[in-house]
Structure formats: structure tokens, C-alpha cells
Please model this.
Amino acid sequence: MKIATLNGIKVHYSVAGPEDGFPVVFANSLGTDFRVWDALLSQMPEGLRFIRYDKRGHGLSEAPKAPYYMGDLVQDAAALMDFLGVKDTLFVGLSIGGMIAQGLAAERPDLIRAMVLSDTATKIGNDQIWAERVDAVRNGGIAALAEPTLERWFSKGFHAEKQDDLAGWRHMLSRTPEEGYIGCSQAIAETDLYVSTSRLTLPTLAIVGSEDGSTPPDMVRETADLIAGCQFNVIRKAGHLPCVEQPAEMAALITAFMKDNNLG
Model:
């Protein structure tokens, strides 16, 4: 277990692979911890340096009192990368993690050479949606949101065939600290990255599950279209977490993208 004090909070992180390997940093989605990448990493090429972390309010990282702001989350990622002495990375962001990637690329271009945006957008949802989710958690805990969230997260096939796995993801979601879920929900609600993302020029790969109920393919495509040269791919038979449902296909897309852009 690795813990670092960054921006006044304890952040849980993991580093795997050779110290001189090309660094790939992963930022996960709302309501998950960095285990969401386990299946994907097992399909990635050897020799890379994989860096994962639990954003504030998630996993084993500290959950300070809400509200949080996207700037807090971006600064946490930057502080971790500075702490580890890495730059010119490939940054892979899922959902809110993809919003962190966009913000970080705009604010600290020295840290990111290229990025993968998975199931994300410049703006996700609206004030009413996030206010309703925050109220639901305050009144009934995260369990009150579990079933509709899982419906958005996973494909129909996963729900039909992977009941044991589904139970595990339900537990991960439900055990997210309430303050962390609320804080990150508020951060998403106040964020619109349209202007800064439209100015980005770094190599970018956008990925989305065909059955994503949170950030549907058209929404992700709109964000991809803002970035010059961005590649866009839809992964079939996957919802909001293609790294879980179709890790081999997602790893193949990332590996090809890295090769095309001389990364690692």
C-alpha cells in the first residue's frame, strides 16, 4: 500500500512496472476505486510503468468534506505526478477521470504527452441531475443510487450473464465514502471544459461503450470532435466501463494508439 500526502489529503496510489518504463497514468470514474483498471492492465504490453490512484473521496484516499471542485481533482493528479517525478505521460481517464485528463492537459501540458478519454465529455449531465443525486445520497446513502447507476454502467449482456461480478461492483459503489461521492458529483456539476478542451492539440484517443447510459456515444463523439486529430472508437457490448466489460479490445485500441504516436 502506498500513501502520499498531497494538497493536504492522504492519497492512495499504486505503481507497477519498470522504473524506466513509459509512464501511463489512470484516473477512474465516480463511485469506483483504481481496481476498475485491473482487467485492462492484464491485457496491456509489458515494460510500461502503470500509475493508478484513488481520487479524493474514493477508495483508500482521504475523503475531505464536500464540496470539491474540478480544480481540486486536477491539482491532486498533478501533485501525484510531481511527487513521482513523471511527465510526458499517457493519461487515461474514465468518466470524471476523463474530465481530470482534459483539465490537466490544459493546465499542465508538461505532464501529458497524449491522453485517452474513455466514456467522458466536456460537460456531463446538468445541475438538476447532480443536485438530485446529491440529495438522494444525503437522504438514503449511496445504496439509494446503486441500481440505476449499475444500469448505466453495464450492458444488458453483463447484467444477464455476470451476476456475481455485478454484485462486486455494487459493493464497490456502495462502499464509496458518501462525502467523496457528493463532493465529486458537485465537481462534475460545476464543470464545463468546452473552451479549454477545444484548444487542445495533443494526440488523443476517445473510447466509449456502445451501451453507455451515462455518457452515450454521441456525447463522447462531440467531445472528440473538439480536439484536432482525435481518434474515436465505439466498443460494442459495453456500457460506461469498457475497461471492465471489454478489456482486451480497449487494451488493443490503446496499444495501437501508443504505437501510432511513438509512445513507449
Remarks:
- The mean pLDDT is 97.
- The first strand starts at residue 2 and ends at 6.
- The domain at 2-260 is CATH 3.40.50.1820 (Rossmann fold).
- The chain has twelve helices and eight strands.
